[in-house]
Amino acid sequence: MASVSVLQDPSLQARHKQSIPLSDGRVLGFAEFGSLYDDATPVLAFHGWPGCRLESAVFHPSACELNVRIIGIDRPGLGLSSPRPNRKLLEWPADVRELVRHLKLERYYILGVSAGGPHALACAHEPAENELLGVGVVSGPGPWTLGTQGATLDLRVILNIVAYAPCLTRYFMNSQIVKPAQDPDPTKLEELMKSQTRNKPPADLEFIERHPDKMAIMVAGVREGFKQGADPNMQDGQLLTSDWGFDPGEITLKNIRLWYGTKDVNVPVAPGRYIAERIPHAVLREYEGDTHITIHGHASEMLKDLITGGAK
């Protein structure tokens, strides 16, 4: 239950509600989890969709164990970050570099989870020289041109609606998610999200039952992520169905780590294999039998893998 306490601990609230002004006048929100020691290894964490910086709390216990400082960042329009309409994936690295300068980080790693994966690879494509030591992707989607084969029917429908009928996406989010997410009573969203987990694979249900902290973090992340309404979340989803603006094969950063579950029906392992083929020096680890949810049981191993890969 350590991750629940880190979100609820009054003495740590200031770490979870930080922001900086960006050079163009926008604000970038972020939260810190894990080690408080000055010599902790910085890892910038990019959340999934929908979500926000608070999602990175799932790595808190592992980060404390490994002396890692997790810095979860809100993408534009989510949580504490200002909107950036019509943004492109390759505009994200510039925002990240401004935060890196503000925090005075000389060396750091990046970890992208699910929808955060393409954002992490965008940073690997345009790294600040000698600063970025490695990029890890946990269950990240590939380019939209790969399609959605292997994903659940529900998810395939949702992504195609996001891609080709954004007005329906906005309507769905406003009618189904925004109201409970913005309700003063947090149990409204919790009840909705729990009802959606009932059709999950048995392995997911068992994992959630054994790790109630993970469910609490998911709820907190979605709740905070919808503070500014549906539009920023719709735009964040549209990036998953848009051209990345680069080919993963152009990435020259040496320390690229990819982790995928073979039973993941949200982001099947196929995109990971594609990215690994496009980046010859990337290292792909397939977790046999793991899903989009249960793969988080390997958090310590993945963090350690990323950091030791950058130390070589």
Give the SSE map.
Layout: H1 2-8, H2 13-16, E1 18-21, E2 27-34, E3 41-46, H3 60-66, E4 68-73, H4 92-103, E5 108-113, H5 116-125, E6 132-138, H6 153-164, H7 166-182, H8 187-197, H9 202-210, H10 212-225, H11 230-238, E7 256-261, H12 270-278, E8 283-287, H13 299-310
Describe this structure in words.
With 312 residues, the protein is of the alpha/beta class. It has a single domain, classed as Rossmann fold. 43% of the residues lie in helices and 15% in strands. It has helices at 2-8, 13-16, 60-66, 92-103, 116-125, 153-164, 166-182, 187-197, 202-210, 212-225, 230-238, 270-278, 299-310, and strands at 18-21, 27-34, 41-46, 68-73, 108-113, 132-138, 256-261, 283-287. It has an eight-stranded mixed β-sheet, with helices on both faces. Strand 7, helix 12 and strand 8 (283-287) form a beta-alpha-beta unit. Helix 6 packs across helix 7, helix 8 (187-197) crosses helix 10 and helix 9 (202-210) crosses helix 10. 47% of the residues are buried. Residues 42-127 form the AB hydrolase-1 domain. It holds the Pfam family Abhydrolase_1.
